[in-house]
Amino acid sequence: MNKFFLFFLPFLLLAVPIRFPYTVKLKKDELFKMDVYYLNRVYPFEMRRTLFINDVITVLYKYDNFPRQVELQKKFSQDAFKVPVALIPENYPYFYIKFDDFNGKIATFTIYLFNGKKVRANLKE
Question: What is the rounded CA–CA span in Å between residue 36 and residue 97?
Fold first, then answer.
């Protein structure tokens, strides 16, 4: 047990824990990565934004190794998307990712975590 702990100690010390809400600023095709820990499992999350045309931004993200795409606008109810951490029927935790602003080159997103008392997330380099 001690050998196992000593092996993973450097990884735990280098990990940067995320506090929510967390603000992400992305340039075109810049990758944001984090590891989500829930119920003794690790779920990798990757997100990047590609195009911003006619006030519509395209976001590509991969959660638990499954790729997805969403298109967001600055209008209410079209400016965010929901990513369930794990599909558990009662009060499952989820991320709410909101598109805040675009200033010509950098898009700003805010990541919220709901019902996530047992969820941990660390930035990945």
Answer: 15
9-18, 71-80, 88-97, range with greatest mean pLDDT: 71-80
Reading the block at residue 18, the tokens are 């995320």
pLDDT of 6 higher than 90: no
Between the alpha carbon of residue 76 and those of residues 32, 33, 41, 71, the distances in Å are: 24, 26, 34, 13
DSSP-assigned letters across all residues of 16-51: EE--SSEEEEE-BT--EEEEEEETTEEEEEEEEEEE
Per-residue pLDDT, 79 = 95
User: What's the CA gap between 2 and 5, in Å, rounded?
Assistant: 5
Structural domains in the chain, CATH included, are 18-123 (2.60.98)
CA atoms of 89 and 75, how far apart (whole Å): 30
**Four-point Cα dihedral 71, 48, 114, 102, nearest 10:** -60
Closest to 21 measured CA to CA, from 116, 124, 125, 85 = 116
What single DSSP character describes residue 88?
A: -
Q: How far apart are CA 29 and CA 89, in angstroms?
A: 34
